[in-house]
Amino acid sequence: MPTFAWMKRVIVAVVLCLPGVILPVAARESPAPATPEVQTRESQAAMTPTKAVERLKAGNARFVANAPKKRDWSAKVVATASGQFPFAAVLGCMDSRAPVEIVFDQGIGDIFGIRVAGNVVNDDEVGSLEYAVKVGTKLIVVLGHTGCGAVKGAIDNVQLGNLTGLLAKIHPAVEAAGCNDAKDEACVTKVVEKNVRQSMKEIRDRSPYLAKYLDEGKVGLVGALYDVATGKVTFLTTT
Ligand SMILES: [Zn+2]
After folding, report:
1. What is the pTM of this model?
2. What one-character DSSP code corresponds to residue 1?
3. Ligand 1 centre from 158 Cα, in Å?
4. 58-65: long-range pairs with CB below 8 Å, 24+
5. pLDDT at 167 over 90
6. Enclosing H/E stretch for 19
7. CA distance linking residue 39 with residue 112, whole number of Å
8. For the segment 185-224, what is each residue's pLDDT rounded down to a tens digit?
9. What is the 232 CA–ligand 1 centroid distance (Å)?
């Protein structure tokens, strides 16, 4: 028959082991609140155009892998309330399948998002980009996407109210692509790429302010294509 002293030793051993069993479970269920990673004046100043591209590529890789960063959105709202220091500005299409923050897996305060059908450029987009650079942004991305309705509309020469003028901005890209079949996916993608490069040229040509930063290498300007079928962003080579 167990003695009282023996039973006491068993009870003590069980009590000592319990924290080792319980704590890991508790830690999994109630993680300590993470410090919100937000862009700061310092992180923005330390950013370079090359690092900014790498960061966006890494973010898109997480998005494609369906493994986005876990974010405490409320904490990010609080942490960015007093200011913003975005490291990149993305000019993308309004297409509901190509939300720039999501496809690059970025959080609140990380990037400026400028979206307009066909990622075309007029004075308003250029002015917005000038502001972005003025406040420290190091990279401008023009992001086109496969299956772009605006590009298809431009190929088909759609006429519709104010949209007619917007699509006219894409017509030179249709000419440059040398094809005009909106039902041909390869043709549409070709025009999309030409249109991205055209927007990049417009940004530089329309803004001596931005051109100076680009020429000095302080700010980068890159084009990219988002594939609505795979979620992957491919950065264009500079040709
Ligand atoms: Zn589009």
Report:
1. 0.85
2. -
3. 15
4. 59/104, 59/105, 59/106, 60/103, 60/104, 60/105, 60/231, 60/232, 60/233, 62/105, 63/102, 63/103, 63/104, 63/105, 63/231, 64/230, 64/231, 64/232
5. yes
6. helix 4-29
7. 12
8. 999 999 999 999 999 999 999 999 999 999 999 999 999 9
9. 15
Neighbour count for residue 164 (Cβ, 10 Å): 12
CA 227 to ligand 1 center in whole angstroms:
11
CA 185, 188, 192, 193 torsion-angle sign: positive
Q: How far apart are CA 55 and CA 217, in angstroms?
A: 18
Spacing, Cα 62 to ligand 1 middle (Å): 23
The length of the chain, given as a count of residues: 239
Q: Separation of 149 CA from ligand 1 center, angstroms?
A: 5
- Nearby residues of 111 by Cβ (< 8 Å), 6 or more positions away: 86, 87, 88, 89, 90, 100, 101, 104
